[in-house]
Amino acid sequence: EFIKESIAAHDIVIFGKSVDRLGSVTTDQVKRVAYQHDIQIHNLDKMDDGEAIQSALVEMTGVKGLPNVFVKGQCVGGNEATQRAVRTGKFMAMVTGQPGPIAMMSMSGAKAPSEFIKESIAAHDIVIFGKSVDRLGSVTTDQVKRVAYQHDIQIHNLDKMDDGEAIQSALVEMTGVKGLPNVFVKGQCVGGNEATQRAVRTGKFMAMVTGQPGPIAMMSMSGAKAPSEFIKESI
Predict the structure, then answer these.
(1) CA atoms within 13 A on the CB side of 33
(2) What is the distance, to the nearest Å, from the Cα of residue 40 to the centroid of all Cα atoms in its chain?
(3) How does residue 230 score in pLDDT terms, banded at 50, 70 and 90?
(4) Would you state the pLDDT for residue 8?
């Protein structure tokens, strides 16, 4: 009841801890962008029933850590989710009820994540779903750009998109590839870092892009023999 009453009474409510350094960063970011709005902060480590309130928050929202941030009665999430919402403009869009710049970009006919993925990979030769801060992913993206610079490459940095987490979950369900980046060529999933870099290195990647057999593929076209037959004959 305390939680429900608090989030109903204030524009922004932050349930946190006074000694949480990362949480303080998040709180400061919220204060900076929403200084003109009603912000209520509850430091649960200073409250007698703080542990009970945190348990109730987990049960209500599924967010296990602190802080847990609410805007207009809606749960934004913890540190990462709140900072991303502040960065993309989604946070203030929720506070004011107006769509922010990123929210407006992502409102593409209210498409489900799976539909967005299918339409994107159908519309472009190469699609890379990744993260802007992923160093290994950047290496993979650079390799793809270097060999396929003459082709249509679309890059979606999911950490910059409001529905990025939902899109990543849909990608896992569709392809089985759990990490990022997740690379597609002509609508076909190539895979993550290792699989994509191997495909680039062997020539398979550009063979998929152009529809022509690459050097490795040409070497293996030995009378269309089954691999087991080829091995037996060779040894």
Answers:
(1) 21
(2) 29
(3) low
(4) 94
Written as six digits, the tokens of 199 are 């495909």
pLDDT tens-place string over residues 155-211: 999 888 877 888 898 999 999 999 999 999 999 999 999 999 999 999 999 999 998
Question: Which DSSP string do the residues of 17-41 spell out, in sequence order?
Answer: -TT-HHHHHHHHHHHHHSTTS-EEE
The total number of residues written for the chain in this structure: 235
For residue 88, what are its two tokens? Answer: 């993309």
Q: What is the pLDDT of residue 224?
A: 47
Which alpha helices (DSSP H) does the chain contain, by range?
A: 2-9, 21-33, 50-61, 79-88, 90-96, 101-106, 113-123, 135-147, 164-175, 193-202, 204-210, 215-219, 227-234
Q: Record the tokens describing residue 206, joined without a space.
A: 């550009």
Residue-wise pLDDT tens digits, 113-129: 888 899 999 999 999 99
Rounded Cα–Cα distance for residues 27 and 12 (Å): 11
* Residues in CB range of 183: below 8 A, 6 or more apart: 126, 127, 128, 129, 140, 144, 189, 190, 191, 192, 195, 196
C-alpha–C-alpha distance, residues 185 and 197, integer Å:
13
Token pair 């989710």 is found at 81
Structure tokens at 100: 């922010």
Beta bridge partners of residue 74, listed in sequence order? 71
Predicted local distance difference test score (pLDDT) of residue 160: 82
